[in-house]
Amino acid sequence: MSTGATTLSGAPYPASPGLWALAWKRLCRDRVGLASFAIVLLYLALMAASAAGLVAGDWSREAGVSYAPPSFLGPGSAPSAERAAPGSEAAAGAPPEDLGIVDPLAAELAEIRKELTGVSVSESRAPTLAFGGDKWGRDVLKKAIKGTETSVLVGIVAAALAVFLGALFGALAGYYGGPVDDVFNWIYSVFTSIPYLLLVLAIAAVLNQKGTATVILILGLTGWTGTFRLVRAEYMKHKVREYVLAADAIGASNAQRMFGHIFPNVSHVVLVQLSLHVVLFIKSEVILSFLGFGVGVDTVSWGSMLNEAQSELLLGQWWQLVAATVAMAVLVTAFSLFTDALRDALDPRLN
Amino acid sequence: MTADTATLLSVRDLKVDFRTSEPHALHALKGISFDIPARGTIALVGESGSGKSVTALAILGLLPAANATVLSGSSITYRGRNLLDSTLNEMQAVRGTEISMVFQEPMSSLNPVFSAGFQLGEVLRKKLGLTRSQARTRAVELLREVGIPEPELRVDAYPFQLSGGQQQRVMIAMAIACEPKLLIADEPTTALDVTVEKQILKLVAGLQPQRQMAMLFITHDLALVAEVADYVVVMREGEIREQGSVKRIFEAPRDDYTRALLACRPTLGRRPRRLPVIDDFAGGRQAVEIPERPRGLRGDEEIVLEARHLAKSFYFREGLFGRKAFEAVKDASFKLARGKTLGVVGESGSGKTTMALTLMRLTPASGGEVLFDGRNLLAMPPEAALQYKRRTQIVFQNPYASLNPRFTAGEILVEPMRIHSIGADDHELHALAGQLFDKVGLPQSSFFKYPHEFSGGQRQRIAIARCLTMKPDVLICDEAVSALDVSVQAQLLNLLQDLQDEYGISYVFISHDLAVVKYMADEVMVMKAGEIVEIAGSDEIYANPRHPYTKQLISAMPRGWRDGGARAEQ
């Protein structure tokens, strides 16, 4: 009460510190929030730069030798395909013949490339790469950057789609109640009663093509149920509040009440759901890639990197796993912290 | 008077700070000192933010440790030792057995999943070491002592099976179970209806001499103080403004603030043209005698709105296919004259609010008509009703809930004007909003502020301004001033009266507070269990109530000191 009074008697600010300006002010006071916001921005900038081809445009160039170790370890520090001398590495449990099977067309491909570019690929290959190379000698760091583009895009767009559907259905069901609520609950029950992977497979089978757009659709169409439940409950709670009755009294239409009045008051729920789903969907993309419903072979994502890393890890080549995991863990953590800070900042009530 | 000269507890120079997000700590208590005698009732009176509850919590050591600090130099001496220096274990021994407390909200103080008897027995078992069966027997005795009918049956009742008054009685039984020396009652009747309030007050006032204990009675209502207290401490903003015997405070108040508090609450006896407010008393000024305002209807006034046989039922499922109707409003018929006020009184659950919402089409009616310009508002299609909806507006009770926290005050005012196409462009809308801020006594800078930046009274002003944007013919005030402090309430009532004088708006003034209704209304309608039991002119109904329920309501009102012999009645 008296804090309100001090605010009033304080400086008479005539300019409008709007909702977002106030939120920004509060966010600036939150150091963790600000730092994580910076990290998220950095990722988005990286994603934009990579999409524009400014960085990691040449990620698919086979710059180093197969499984080139990171530069800081030196060339002989880990077994690569060529130098996996028998008995030198305990981790190299797989016999060298196995590795030979991996790329039976290597010689032919090299020749084809040689013909196409006129340069011998094998001659220009570096023995080490900044953060190591994969099976084909592609730079892992560049792959991780390029993978950011795909993974973040999938995560954000799919989460936006899922949360949009969930929020819209939840708003309609919670606000109108009665038969409308019954219909949406019925759809909800159908979606949640089918085992998740079965549902994913079913939708994948219907869409019947691989690619980033498919992954987004699969995740978006299956992931709205949790948000629906929460938003529906919030709308049921808010629709009887006095401010909504007051809006009815001044003649605001149903749509205005639903989206103009109630939505800003439940937006924090939606925001938190959005961030949780971004994180969830980045991880889901990995699972989908593993199941063969991930992004196509011509694109790289953290999921496909982690998928490749499974077999590499057995050979002691950890750098692809680390690159993808670190990139993902930093973003996921930063995003979660940022969402928490954002939710606190957007709350109009004083603590 | 049962006051004893021996001091039981003395508070000396108590200072409490609260940490807030602001750079400076909030000084909740700024060095207060008072004594509680071993027998007798002392009342702490003050408005919200005065620090009354903080004082009570400090005595029991229940201040939130995370953000409250008791400054050094403070002392609370109970029987020769300083409670502020006691360890947690020592305090736990004091709480309940030596000093106990009754809170404001009985509904949230009792655990809903345990029976009343179990919760009462728990206190007895833990504090007095009684066995289960002993505790039960004692619980029944205690419930009988606090006036619960059929205590042998009620002892197994769950809180939801008890009424609000009975729940508060159970809380009181728990508080007195271990025979404390001091009972702290923090607004024990504020959440209760006026007839129940009277019963609880009677119980509390009777227990004190009977149990030979001291009582600290915390309230915002001076009228109640007159009925229970021997000694009064008036607080404001963490300071004691005045303390003295109840007779002295009421008959010869020395402090400006005390005098203002006494004057700004409407009384049954008088109806000045405007209520005195705190500013009228600042600097020791004497209130000027304000002429009386005549109220009532002549009978030839133009009728703005008429309700005929209005009914509203809610349905519950019962059994597999059956449904049971609950009639919230039954056959309500009344007329509202232009520029006049219809007061609606009744206890909670009497259907006052439902009637108001039905009147405005905010909830669909089950039957009846609402005539506006001779047309039935309830039968119109929604598009046509929009024009009429504009002309009836409502101010809700809770100013914290009725404004959208995400809109600025300016947006709140501009929105209805946009919906009803009032004002040509943004510039004009802003100008109109500015005029309305002036009209309701808010600064122009309010335009860009959010509701949480305003106090309760200011929020209610915004809510009133929002209604005024549509130039309504009828304004429904649903307990519009009930949640506010007495001094703010007086300002709001004056504002409402000024607006009625200027624009000729008709009010439907719903309140549980009979004194306020008497002050505001030309005609009074009494509701009970969804039915209108009596409608009469406001002077008439208070002088000669006809219906027994009206009589009961009026006799239950706290009379204060001036209305004479408050304690003698008991």
Number of helices of chain B: 20
Q: Which fold does the CATH topology of the domain at 338-365 and 377-569 in chain B refer to?
A: Rossmann fold
Briefly, what CATH class of the domain at 338-365 and 377-569 in chain B?
Answer: Alpha Beta
As a percent range, the share of strand residues of chain A is under 5%
**Overall 3D form of chain A:** elongated
Largest sheet of chain A: none
> How much strand of chain B?
15-25%
Task: Write the element-wise H/E pattern of chain A from the N-terminal end onward.
Answer: HHHHHHHHHHHHHHH
Mean pLDDT of chain A: 77
Share in helix of chain A: 55-70%
In total, how many beta strands of chain B? 21
Q: Mind telling me the C-alpha Rg of chain A? A: 26 Å
**Strand segment tally of chain A:** 0
Q: What would CATH call the homologous superfamily of the largest domain in chain A?
A: MetI-like
- The rounded Rg of chain B comes to 26 Å
The CA-CA distance between the termini of chain A, in Å, is: 12 Å
Could you give the topology of this structure?
The complex is a heterodimer of chains A (351) and B (570).
Chain A lengths: L1 H8 L9 H11 L1 H21 L44 H7 L3 H12 L3 H4 L15 H37 L1 H16 L2 H12 L4 H11 L2 H14 L3 H8 L4 H38 L10 H13 L4 H28 L5
Chain B lengths: L6 E12 L7 E12 L2 E6 L6 H9 L7 E3 L4 E4 L2 E2 L5 H7 L4 E4 L3 H4 L6 H13 L3 H14 L5 H4 L9 H13 L5 E5 L7 H18 L2 E6 L2 H7 L2 E6 L2 E7 H6 L4 H9 L38 E16 L3 E16 L3 E5 L6 H8 L7 E6 L2 E2 L5 H8 L2 E4 L13 H11 L6 H14 L16 H13 L5 E5 L7 H18 L2 E5 L3 H7 L2 E6 L2 E7 H6 L4 H9 L14
Parallel strand pairs in B: 3-9, 3-10, 7-8, 8-9, 14-19, 14-20, 17-18, 18-19
Antiparallel strand pairs in B: 1-2, 1-4, 1-5, 5-6, 10-11, 12-13, 12-15, 15-16, 20-21
